[in-house]
């Protein structure tokens, strides 16, 4: 079964709420391996193929498809059935000619949404933190474990450093070339990635900064089920920018 912290399976009742599992599912559930996304905020690749997309019937079939190199994550072949697939990751299944993006969905948690093929070549990544490295260059640490180095000509006047934490980069896959940048600011298009408003999409109405990591609040203007505009609040940390004024990605099923 492996070491205590890296078991292949876990009890279904112990899985995170961000994983949608059928109540009729057997007692044990495939466990994620350590990787770019945290366990509590990711889906094992085998679960996506077997339980969510239902392109295979068993975990054995999922392993066969994956081992044949027919599944790409963010443009690269993935051969690990336990690989942790997380928010905004792009999953491509070559034999089925389908492409999906992992997005938050109310009630269900993280879920694969089929997207147009033109969207498979880019991804949105939130800047979690940044640091200055040797030579005065700036390293951006992104939500999916990526690090992007911003070369700076003059460390005393780093004009190239125009990126702030909580802002979102649109990057090319798999090269990681920066295509665009969306700062967290008023009127920006936003998606809520955690909390009671999970999956909500709207535009930022206002941002209230307060002391403490979970004290800052973002107010969102979003349409209600009846079509009327309503103001909702979410924690600063639950905010994920998806465009300057309108979404840059597909968000809903056809």
User: How many strands appear in the DSSP assignment?
Assistant: 19
Spatial order of strands in the largest sheet:
5-4-7-8-9
Which fold name is given in CATH as the topology of the largest domain?
A: Structural Genomics Hypothetical 15.5 Kd Protein In mrcA-pckA Intergenic Region, Chain A
How many H/I helices? 2
Identify the CATH architecture of the largest domain. Roll
Beta-strand residue percentage:
35-45%
The coarse overall form would be: globular
Description:
The chain has helices at 45-52, 59-67, and strands at residues 9-11, 28-30, 42-44, 71-73, 76-77, 84-86, 90-93, 98-105, 109-114, 122-132, 138-142, 147-150, 168-172, 178-182, 189-192, 201-208, 217-223, 229-235, 239-243. The chain has 254 residues and is mainly β. The protein folds into three domains: 9-116, Structural Genomics Hypothetical 15.5 Kd Protein In mrcA-pckA Intergenic Region, Chain A, CATH 3.10.290.10; 122-181, OB fold (Dihydrolipoamide Acetyltransferase, E2P) (Beta Barrel); 189-243. The strands form five sheets. The chain has a five-stranded antiparallel beta sheet with strand order 5-4-7-8-9, with no helix packed on it. A hairpin with a 3-residue loop joins strand 8 and strand 9 (109-114). The longest helix is centred in the N-terminal third of the chain and has 9 residues, at 59-67. The protein is globular and about 55 Å long.
Secondary structure layout:
Layout: E1 9-11, E2 28-30, E3 42-44, H1 45-52, H2 59-67, E4 71-73, E5 76-77, E6 84-86, E7 90-93, E8 98-105, E9 109-114, E10 122-132, E11 138-142, E12 147-150, E13 168-172, E14 178-182, E15 189-192, E16 201-208, E17 217-223, E18 229-235, E19 239-243
Antiparallel strand pairs: 1-2, 3-6, 4-5, 4-7, 7-8, 8-9, 10-11, 10-13, 11-12, 13-14, 15-16, 15-19, 16-17, 17-18
